[in-house]
Amino acid sequence: MNLTFNDEERMVIELARDFAENELAPIAESIDQEKRVPIEALRKMQELGLLGLMIPEEYGGAGVRTSCYAQVIEELARVCAAVAIVLSVHNSVGAYPILRFGSEEQKQKYMPKLAGDWIGAFCLSEAASGSDASALELKAKRDGDDYVLDGSKLWVTNGSIANLYLVMAKTADVPDKPHRGISAFLVEKDTPGLIVGKLEDKMGLRGSDTAEIQFDGCRVPASALVSEEGVGFKIAMQALDNGRIGVGSQAVGIARGALEEAIKYAKERVAFGRPIAEHQAVQFKLADMETEISAARNLVRRAAWLKDSDQPHGKEAAMAKLYASEMAHRVVHQAVQIHGGAGYIKEYPVERYYRDQRITEIYEGTSEMQRIVIGRAVIAE
Ligand SMILES: Cc1cc2nc3c(=O)[nH]c(=O)nc-3n(C[C@H](O)[C@H](O)[C@H](O)COP(=O)(O)OP(=O)(O)OC[C@H]3O[C@@H](n4cnc5c(N)ncnc54)[C@H](O)[C@@H]3O)c2cc1C
After folding, report:
1. pLDDT of 34-78, one tens digit each?
2. Number of compact structural domains in the chain
């Protein structure tokens, strides 16, 4: 496994780190408090080529390897997890499925836009189907040269800012194998019948929007179908394998940011006549945090490397996401603990890291679903 970055990749990672420190750090707190998507920062990321990161150069993107992309997400999440997830969703479950399964016509039409000023979103979850994605009910009915979509999607990241939605819908009832009745469609924002509904008021990641998207007689041409009818579930699952590398990186970034804050605080805060960093119980916490972050990062990089080498990586992406998100839970917990009462106060960033981390154990498949994926894979092996 090659874990080194070439010069160009190092430049991209450095650009992301500088951007996070100079542009995101000053607004991370306020966008959380105001529950505001920082559109101006996203536009700058587009200009810098940081948004369409994994889109191949032939379509106008940066075309970096997944391992570089993962490191960029870590750099952003270290400072602002909300912006990191915009980038992760846009690339891994927004653009990637089109690259992997789309027709050449769809790629020519959408990739340059997604490498430019368009943002992508992924619509799988519904009120009655989250983990059990094959139970989704949004319908797409063939009508002449079109499909007509009716139903509602929940919790769509980038839902209110996206220009293009990848929508999983039921095109057939297949009673024993419902996943075979699911198809994927590309729906543009301005399509009549696509309505951005309620925006969720969340515990964390408040600088990222999470919206209900309704489809009310939403008519799209047959050319909006990705691949063929019945392939939508496969497209969604492969997109999520990719997305889990992004969420794993996001968790590593959150944990790293929390650890850095904890180290800073431990050096400044004096108790019993010396900085708390000199108390061995605090040092041991810092040691465990650093060790676990490194272990999680290596799992993420291994999954990314397998993907870049065109090897199966579903189990490894699930392991990376599972371990990194639960690791981040432990790390932010200890970061708050090291801050004492200050850790519970909004003035200190660890309070935000603590809230932001929690979703990494839930979206793009809960920890329980990751264990199911990993468990099935090891039994099959
Ligand atoms: C902030 C945010 C952003 C999101 N972004 C998106 C997005 O962009 N696109 C999208 O499509 N969705 C998105 N989601 C939805 C997210 O992916 C789902 O919430 C998640 O998959 C879990 O589904 P659920 O909430 O319906 O929980 P449920 O599936 O109802 O699960 C509830 C609990 O039961 C457990 N459980 C369920 N089945 C099993 C089983 N077989 N064995 C053991 N335990 C089980 C789960 O692990 C969980 O603990 C987002 C959610 C949030 C909160």
Report:
1. 999 999 999 999 999 999 899 999 999 999 999 999 999 999 999
2. 3
Of 230, 255, 290, the residue at which a domain comes to its end is 230
Among 125, 185, 198, say which to mutate for ligand 1: greatest number of ligand atoms within 8 Å of CB: 125
Average pLDDT, the chain: 97
Range(s) of the domain holding residue 222: 120-230
In tens, the pLDDT along 111-164 reads: 999 999 999 999 999 999 999 999 999 999 999 999 999 999 999 999 999 999
Is 58 part of the annotated catalytic residue set?
Answer: no
- Tell me the C-alpha to C-alpha distance, in Å, between residue 104 and each of 65, 98, 135, 145, 185: 21, 9, 30, 19, 15
Q: Is residue 2 part of a domain?
A: no
Do 163 and 284 share a domain, yes or no? no
Query: Which of the following is catalytic: 23, 316, 351, 364?
Result: 364
Closest atom of ligand 1 relative to the 205 alpha carbon: 1
Confidence of residue 3 (pLDDT cuts 50, 70, 90): confident
- Could you tell which of 157, 167, 363, 374 is best to mutate to test the pocket of ligand 1, judged by most ligand atoms within 8 Å of the CB? 363
Over residues 242-256, the pLDDT tens digits come to 999 999 999 999 999
Q: How far is the CA of 78 from the centre of ligand 1 (A)?
A: 24
Are residue 107 and residue 147 in the same domain, yes or no? Answer: no
Torsion, CA 67, CA 73, CA 78, CA 80, rounded to 10:
180
The ligand 1 atom nearest the CA atom of 202: 1
Indicate which residue's Cα is closest to atom 17 of ligand 1. 363
- Measured in Å, residue 212 CA sits from the centre of ligand 1 at 15
- For 287-304, what is the mean pLDDT? 98
Q: Give the CATH number, domain containing residue 369.
A: 1.20.140.10
Binned at pLDDT 50, 70 and 90, residue 2 comes out as: low
Can you give the pLDDT at residue 4? 86
Based on the fold, state whether residues 335 and 221 are members of the same structural domain: no
Distance in Å, CA 367 to ligand 1 centroid: 10
**Within 6 Å (CB) of ligand 1, which residues are found?**
89, 122-125, 130-131, 155-157, 202, 205, 210, 359, 362-366, 368-369
Q: Is 1 a member of any domain?
A: no
